[in-house]
Amino acid sequence: MTTLKPVLIGTALFLVILVSGCVVQQVNETDVEKTALLSLPQLLCFELNDPPAIFDFAYQEDGEIKYVSALTTCADPATVNATTFLGEQITLHFKGQTPVRITRENGDTYAVEVRNASKRVIARYFKPPLNTAVSLKHFRSSNPEKFIAECLLINDSNQRDICLSYQAAFQQNITLCDKLVVSSSCKQWIQNIKYGNVYNSARGP
Predict the structure, then answer these.
(1) Fewer beta carbons below 10 Å: N end or C end of the chain?
(2) Measured between alpha carbons, how far is 152 from 155 in angstroms, rounded to an integer?
(3) Is 131 exposed, middle or buried (0-12, 13-18, 19+ CB in 10 A)?
C-alpha cells in the first residue's frame, strides 16, 4: 500500500495543476475592437442627488445591433460636455461571451452592464420610423468609412437604412442615401437639415 502513495500524490498534484490551468483560462479576457454605431451619454447629473452616469453604445455583431452600457459617476470628467458619437472606435473586453469592460476611443475604460441595455433610450435610435426632424447639431462623427461598412452588415433592412441615414444626414451627403433600400426618408432628412426644418436637440429620437 505504501508504494501507491507517491503515485496518488503525483496524480493529485497533476489534477490540481490541471484544474488551476482551467481556472486561469476562464478568467482571461479577449479584446475585440469595434466601430460603435452610436455612443450615447445618458446623464442626470443635474436632476438627481448622486445619480449614476451611463454611456450607452450600439455596435454591429453577426448582422445584429447589440447594446452595452458603461457605468460611471457624475464626478467623471468625461461627463462634462459629453456628446453623441457616430463611429467611435471602442474595445470590448470579453470574459467568455460576455463583455465586462469597454475602452473608449480616448482611452477611458469602464465596467460594462449588458442587462437591459437594449431597453435603454439608445435602442430607439434604430427603430422606425426615422425621425427626420433632428438636426444632429450636437452629434460628432469619426471613422465614417468604418461606420458605413458596419451599417451595411446589418441584416434588418429597416435598421440598416436608419444606420446609414445617420451618416448621410450628418455629412449632408444625399448620394449615400442611394445605398438604402428605401431612400426617401434619408433624402428628406438632408433636405430638412439644409433648409432648417429641424430642431436642435441633443436627445435625438
Answers:
(1) N
(2) 8
(3) middle
